[in-house]
Amino acid sequence: MLRFDLGMILIATDEFSAENKLGQGGFGSVYKGILPSGQKIAVKRLAGGSGQGDLEFKNEVLLLTRLQHRNLVKLLGFCNEGDEEILVYEHVPNSSLDQFIFDEHKRWLLTWDVRCRIIEGVARGLLYLHVWIKA
Ligand SMILES: Nc1ncnc2c1ncn2[C@@H]1O[C@H](COP(=O)(O)OP(=O)(O)OP(=O)(O)O)[C@@H](O)[C@H]1O
Questions:
Q1: What ipTM does the predicted assembly reach?
Q2: Starting from the edge strand earliest in sequence, which strands make up the sheet with 28-34, in order?
Q3: Residue range 1-92, CATH number
Q4: Hey, where are the domains in the chain?
């Protein structure tokens, strides 16, 4: 588990530039970034990070790093400097599935065969989580 320093993340994401914004989730914004090694990353900047939940945040990160499955995005590391609470993931190309499902030009790429494989992959990931949570 890597602890990234904020300076490195600011350089990687061009200071959380609007051009690098990949999306917005329930926990905050996600930015594309690139490490000096050339590795592409997705940086989730948690909204409302106060620095106060330091221990809680660290425990959650430790928990998340134990999840390893080919259908789950890999967590590479974290940063909790100052008020920031940031999660660093491997970058997954091709945006989100909803960008294909709801786009009339791209929708045709999702043949039923492809859809079935996606559903199977999602189910495998979910099953892994269920088993993992019970254990
Ligand atoms: N590892 C990643 N690689 C590439 N893009 C990502 C990655 N993680 C998130 N994104 C992009 O950022 C968007 C927001 O992601 P995030 O995980 O925060 O929210 P969500 O799963 O869409 O919603 P919620 O957090 O509310 O469940 C995604 O829809 C996706 O486009």
A1: 0.94
A2: 2-3, 75-79, 86-90, 40-46, 28-34, 21-25
A3: 3.30.200.20
A4: 1-92, 94-135
